[in-house]
Design a protein that fits this description.
Blueprint: E1 3-5, E2 10-12, E3 22-31, E4 42-49, E5 61-62, E6 74-76, E7 90-95, E8 105-112, H1 115-118, E9 125-134, E10 139-145, E11 155-164, E12 167-177, H2 180-187
Parallel strand pairs: 1-10
Antiparallel strand pairs: 2-12, 3-7, 3-9, 4-5, 4-8, 6-7, 8-11, 9-10, 11-12
Amino acid sequence: MPINLSKGQKVDLTKGNPGLKNIIVGLGWDVNAFDSGVDFDLDAAVFMLGDDGKCPTDKEFIFYGNLCHSSESVKHLGDNLTGEGEGDDEQVQIDLSKIPANISKIAFTVTIYDAETRKQNFGQVSNSFIRIVDESNNTELIRYDLGEDFSIETAVVVGELYRNGSEWKFNAIGSGFQGGLAALCAHYGIDVA
């Protein structure tokens, strides 16, 4: 039975699952029926953060243009351009044992590609979720359904893994941003030229 979280809830990931090493973080969404006539392209991105809440370098920003961290601890499994179909739309593979010591948090975000031009926002997206699956046995451990109705936001910080001593925990965040991926990059200390 996965633990279903609500916004702001924090839960132990590794303490209750000793030996947990390889996880899949799945993100999914549906586009509402009153669609704008233009395809939605939602993108999952990962920010690997130091104690200051910023990415140490641009290499800790994992997205469709940089799918794998050099430590091989975080791998984005590729961009889904439509969000069609059931289940996870995009997945990120995490090896907890390989996460560099200077990384204390890993934030999972979703943005709408080219949202301003396409006049799209998260008010037109529903059934968004993040889930964490134990890769060794395909068991869903944690699930957070973003029930909030966002309206004008074009980026959402869905949740984050964070170190707590020697253990990892998960925090269900669900906070929206205007300004899409550029706003998130600025927030996490990535210079987007």
